[in-house]
Amino acid sequence: MTDSPDQKPEIATRKAPHTDYRGLERSKITPMFQHYIEVKEMNPNALLLYRVGDFFECFFQDAAIISRELELILTSKDGGKEIGRVAMTGVPHHALERYSRQLVEKGYAVAICDQVEDAAEAAAEKRMVERAITKLLTPGTLTDEGMLNARKNNFLAAVVIAGDNWGLAYADISTGEFHTTQDRHLNSLTVELTRLQPSEVLVPTNAPDINRLLRPGEKSDHLPDCLPENFCYSLRQQTPFSLTEAKNRLLLTYRVRSLEGMGCEHLPLAIRAAGGLLEYIEDTQKANQVPLRPLRTYAVSEFLVLDGQTRRNLEITQTVRDGSFYGSLLWAIDRTVTAMGSRALRRWLLQPLLDIKGIHARQETIQELKDNTSLRQDIQQKLREIYDMERLSGRVGAGTANARDLLALAESLVRLSDLAELARTGKSPYLKTLQKVPGDLEQLGRRVIEHLVETPPLHLKEGGIIRDGIDAGLDEQRQRYKEDMQWLTNLEVTEREKTGISNLKVSFNKTFGYYISLPRSKADQAPKDYIRKQTLVNEERYITPELKEKESRILTAEDELHQLEYEIFTDLRSQIAEFADEIREVATRVAALDVLAGLAEVAVYQGYCRPEIVPGRLVEITDGRHPVVEKSIGSPFFVPNSSDLGDGDGVEYPDLIILTGPNASGKSCYLRQVGLIQLLAQTGSFVPARSARMSICDRIFTRVGAVDDLATGQSTFMVEMNETANILNHATEKSLVLLDEIGRGTATFDGLSIAWAVAEYIATEIRARTIFATHYHELNELASILSNVANYQVTVKELPHEIVFLHQVRPGGADKSYGIEAGRLAGLPASVIDRALQVMGQIEKHSKIAIGLRKGIEKIKPVKETDHRSIQQLDIFGELETEGEEA
Ligand SMILES: Nc1ncnc2c1ncn2[C@@H]1O[C@H](COP(=O)(O)OP(=O)(O)OP(=O)(O)O)[C@@H](O)[C@H]1O
Q1: How far is the CA of 456 from the centre of ligand 1 (A)?
Q2: What stretch of H or E contains 647?
Q3: Which of 100, 120, 241, 283 lies 20 to 30 Å from 547, alpha-carbon distance?
Q4: 663 marked among binding-site residues
Q5: Known binder of ligand: residue 664?
Q6: Residue 662 assigned to a binding site
Q7: Is 263 helix (H, G, I), strand (E, B) or coil?
Q8: Is 667 annotated as a binding residue?
Q9: 662 to each of 495, 645, 667, 817, how far by Cα in Å?
Q10: pLDDT tens-digit profile of 293-331?
Q11: What pLDDT score was predicted for residue 863?
């Protein structure tokens, strides 16, 4: 922590500083604090960072919060003679971005109140420096480059719920994307929100604490239950979300007469959400206009549904264990070279397609780029030279882009024509879309490059941005300035010649500007027009009327030059802002090409094949691999496995596979591998397999592992049952269901019974393609009863003192778990292992289930739903018990 000059650590005996201003008599508070409170009251829901000199300080309650959250020292400042000390925390102004980003990441809104005039001017006039809110940062409205993750969208969402119907709009204000949708069933709203992972969600309520930002996990009675707890929620007034207001706002913003063109004219909840979202942006981004792209309406049913748990279990963008990117599917296959491409790939993976045409278009492009190595490499080379046009044009549109941003955007625009030229040598769909880029974009880029110097400074008001020869007025002023500066540079020489004093010097200081200095010993030789200003021990300092005149010209010319350059720059920026939509439209195409070139690269170097998309409900994968495990352990060490499920294209396989095998043999890996291959295929990507024929599936469901959901107070078993219920209630025969252990969180008999009934229900009632990994070998009996069920096992080789994992999936059921061997490997004491073996022997000998199953479970017929009341759960095993005993 860097101390601000006014900071004094608190001494325990002193009266505690005020952390609440409400009880204080305003007239007795210092003027600066009065202003602070005024601003704070206008922004009660944001942490207020208030500029004081070189620091941004915060006071009262905010000081306590910031000190706690950022681990900064809580100090105090004098609030007035009769008031005493006020709690204070400060951050140095140059570290503002870092600290405010940390606060926003923790779910706070942050209001920045900066000095908006030169502090020296105010000091000279003996008044308080003028300050105003210059930025209001909330998690969903960030645009500053340093606060955003380049490879991830930053979505702001708004929801409107009416009964079981809902509307959802979302925007990324840094890239301009703006989408809206409407659907039924609140659980599908939850699914959409977890897909988007918005940084902030707006909820219209009639809560008394309107405008409050709820941090992740914070509870409120005003939040509908279907909204996941792990997001930030902004409680908003209802009015902007009313149909009339929302619709008018959309019509006005887009200057249209109807919303027909945007596809949401007849979707009132989608309109309300979108209108409410726009109002929030207007409200929070007062100073900066945020131009969004035209609103696009989509239907949730256009895409493969991946619910939150499936997305998590398949580790698409982060791992389950520690939430890291390393080890996720995205990590394994992201070979994009631009931030735009990386963001697009993430979106594509989270929203795979259902439409065969769309999948084919992507496949064909990947195929062409895979086959044509030089084209792929040239394209990637060009793409590397293209900056983040989506976010750059966003900042241009918002008027926050600096000269370097503008130059980066301009260089990208110019390079587009090279990219188009390359695209013209190809013939696949995504290359075709880039064969033509609007010519005016290139011209625009060139104009910017002509205007701006090669490496412009970061600050816009300090000059040095615009090249010579661009503006006659600027050139003229520069010339005059240069001449005056030259006069000044020569002054030392000319004055030395004139006076004959060889050690005469011309220098500058802040107090009286330029001056001539003579050694004290030569002071008597000073010419008459020298006016003495200061006497030091060894030196006399003088000014001359001519020097002062030139100086004043130089200083004014400097200010004027900076202002002129700034105006030329902002004019140029506004010209580009007018093309923001066109730029972003091209940027989307560039991003898509980047994704596909990256996937082609993966296909080449990681040996992926093009899956054939066939009608029906087929999964036919030959020698499939898990993309992440393969990359982690190295391809030669990964054992490929095939998977055949469902039917289509003239073949028929089982619908449900019971997969058994010892611990750590590779069941989970196999299960996820099938899910990931299906997901990749519907993303349009090639897949890690020797060959694959796949049908489109409507949803992928997964139930993997067991994790206590402590946050919601649910036990491992309840989480498992909830997830299973969700699958049984929503899966269709077009779905792919991956179940890893069901019924382990309860007593063995209950667990086995549930697992049995679930598998049976899926195989007979739903007929979804399913892989069911389990340690209940008893489930292998299902295959002898149901024709669409088959048994597979992950094999191991048993040696005298160890087992070797072969990781091969082969037909047939395993009859041993090797759980005790796993315990031995893990280092359980030998006596415990011996005892466990003894106990297992006894259980196997006497187990009613084991005996019963061996004796003929095929007699158990699946229970019809209508009969279930009359049959007790334990009847299955009760019947077996009798038979076992008879034996
Ligand atoms: N096909 C494969 N080729 C090579 N290694 C594999 C393969 N499948 C799995 N493995 C390795 O084996 C490890 C254990 O696999 P996995 O977690 O899938 O086992 P499991 O059978 O599900 O175990 P458990 O029953 O204990 O959950 C993986 O982390 C991986 O490193």
Answers
A1: 54
A2: strand 641-648
A3: 120
A4: yes
A5: yes
A6: yes
A7: coil
A8: yes
A9: 95, 23, 8, 4
A10: 899 999 988 899 898 889 999 999 999 888 899 999 999
A11: 44
What span, in angstroms and rounded, lies between the C-alpha atoms of 311 and 308? 5
Cβ proximity of 138 and 128 under 8 Å: no
- Does the beta carbon of 663 lie inside 6 Å of ligand 1? yes
Give the Å distance between the CA of 670 and the centre of ligand 1.
Answer: 8
* Residue 220: per-residue pLDDT: 85
* 664 close to ligand 1 (CB < 6 Angstrom): yes
* Interface predicted TM-score (ipTM): 0.95
Helices (H), 541-633: 545-577, 580-605, 627-633
Distance CA 820, CA 13 (A): 63
Q: 523-540: per-residue pLDDT in tens?
A: 888 888 899 988 888 899
Backbone angles phi, psi at 607, to 5 degrees: 60, 50
DSSP for 123-190, please give it.
Answer: HHTTSPPPEEEEEEE-TTS---GGGS-TTS---EEEEEEETTEEEEEEEETTTTEEEEEEEE-HHHHH
Assign 3-class secondary structure to 398-437: HCCCCHHHHHHHHHHHHHHHHHHHHHCCCCCHHHHCCCCC
Name the residue among 671, 834, 827 with its Cα closest to residue 310. Answer: 671
Structure tokens that stand for 68 in this block:
């706690």
Under the banding of pLDDT at 50, 70 and 90, the label for residue 846 is low
627 Cβ below 6 A of ligand 1: no
Determine whether the annotation assigns residue 157 to a binding site: no
Terminus-to-terminus CA distance in the chain, angstroms? 79
Q: 91 CB under 6 A from ligand 1?
A: no
Cα–Cα distance, 690 to 694 (Å, whole number):
13
Residue 629 CA to ligand 1 centre (angstroms): 9
648 is annotated as contributing to ligand binding = no
639 lines ligand 1 (CB under 6 A): yes
Q: Is the Cβ atom of 688 under 6 angstroms away from ligand 1?
A: no
* Residue at token pair 């969903």: 140
pLDDT on residue 286:
67
| Residue 696 alpha carbon to ligand 1 centre in Å | 27
- pLDDT of the residue at 714: 61
- How many CB atoms are closer than 10 A to CB 842? 9
The predicted pLDDT at position 867 comes to 41
Atom 15, ligand 1: which residue's CA is nearest? 666
pLDDT bin (cut points 50, 70, 90) of residue 217 is confident
Distance from the alpha carbon of residue 710 to the mean position of ligand 1, in angstroms: 27
666 assigned binding-site residue: yes
Query: CA-CA distance, 580 to 112, in Å (whole number)?
Result: 27
Cβ 317 under 6 angstroms from ligand 1: no
Q: Burial, 517: exposed, middle or buried (Cβ in 10 Å; 0-12, 13-18, 19+)?
A: middle
- Where b means 16+ CB within 10 Å and e means fewer, 290-301 reads bbbbebebbebe
Residue 672 in contact with ligand 1 by CB distance below 6 A: no
pLDDT tier at 482, thresholds 50, 70, 90: confident
The answer to whether 665 is a known ligand-binding residue is yes
**Rounded CA gap, 477 and 487, in Å?**
15
Q: What angle do CA 328, 332, 338 make, to 5 degrees?
A: 105
Asked if residue 629 has its Cβ within 6 Å of ligand 1, the reply is yes
Distance 669 CA to ligand 1 centre (A): 5
Structure confidence at residue 80 as a pLDDT band (50, 70, 90): confident
Is 807 near ligand 1, meaning CB less than 6 Å away?
Answer: yes
pLDDT(861) > 80: no
How many Å apart are CA 742 and CA 755, to the nearest integer? Answer: 5
